[in-house]
Amino acid sequence: MIGSRSLAYCRLAARELLGKQIMQCTKIICAAVVAFALTGVAAPAMAQVSSTIPVTLTGADPVAAGYHFDEGQPCNVHTGLGGNRAYQTKTVNVAATGTYTLSDQGPGDIGFALYTGSFDPLNPTVGCVASTDGAINISLTSGNYTLVQMAWSNGALGNFSSGFNGPGAVTTVAAAAIPTLSEWAMILFGTILAGGAALYVQRRRLPA
């Protein structure tokens, strides 16, 4: 049988050995953490989101007389041109603040611009953030903008598209629905009905 002293010695030796192993592991882990910190590893780059907003310009669209959009910030309106250029406006939402690349995505040549407010075709530089007929990098704050997509050439019609590449999606905002005549009639009927009911209740409360 193993004596009590031998057993105690074995236990002590085991504890010392285990303690050395733990200390060795701790040193290795600390060294690895310090080495990783000293390498100055940069944070991973934010993923880029590509968005495309198409447009089909037709003869029924409004036209801008004598100018088109070129590349520039805050805006580059090339005036003194002949002819008319069809355009459409849309409200778009920029999801995240950051740097975006705006580019003409084809298939036809188009110039387009972003505005902080509404677009006035007689004063195309007012409120304009940036414009391009090719590609341009600009800084945008998240929120809504007015997008103006305009044919680059006189009388050009057809399919075009505007591209956005940046930290967030750029999407169109649906216009508020305008009530139809039948819906207006229902609203008016409901208002008259509510007013009649209120008048009836008030008369019943009056003393006889």
Describe the fold and architecture:
With 208 residues, the protein is of the alpha+beta class. The chain folds into 2 domains: 1-41; 49-172, Jelly Rolls, CATH 2.60.120. The chain is built from 2 helices and 12 strands; from the N terminus they run αββββββββββββα. It has helices at 4-38, 181-205, and strands at 49-57, 63-65, 68-70, 76-78, 84-94, 98-104, 110-115, 128-132, 135-140, 143-151, 158-166, 170-172. The strands form 3 sheets. Strands 2, 5, 7, 8, 10 and 12 form a 6-stranded antiparallel sheet that branches. Strands 1-11-6-9 form a 4-stranded antiparallel sheet, with no helix packed on it. Strands 3-4 form a two-stranded antiparallel ribbon. Residues 32-38 have low confidence and may be disordered.
Strands, helices and their partners?
Elements: H1 4-38, E1 49-57, E2 63-65, E3 68-70, E4 76-78, E5 84-94, E6 98-104, E7 110-115, E8 128-132, E9 135-140, E10 143-151, E11 158-166, E12 170-172, H2 181-205
Antiparallel strand pairs: 1-11, 2-5, 3-4, 5-10, 5-12, 6-9, 6-11, 7-8, 7-10
Quick take:
The longest helix has 35 residues, at 4-38. The chain is an alpha+beta fold.
- Domain count, please report it: 2
pLDDT averaged residue by residue:
80
Under the CATH scheme, the architecture of the largest domain is: Sandwich
Shape: extended
| Assigned CATH class of the largest domain | Mainly Beta
Q: Strand portion, in percent?
A: 35-45%
Q: If helices are DSSP runs of H or I spanning 4 or more residues, what is the number of helices?
A: 2
Structural class: alpha+beta
pLDDT under 50 segments (min length 5)?
Answer: 32-38
Order of helix and strand elements from N to C terminus: HEEEEEEEEEEEEH
The number of E-state strands comes to 12
- Percent helix range: 25-40%
Distance between the termini: 116 Å
Q: What gyration radius follows from the Cα positions, in whole Å?
A: 35 Å
> Biggest β-sheet, characterized?
6 strands, antiparallel
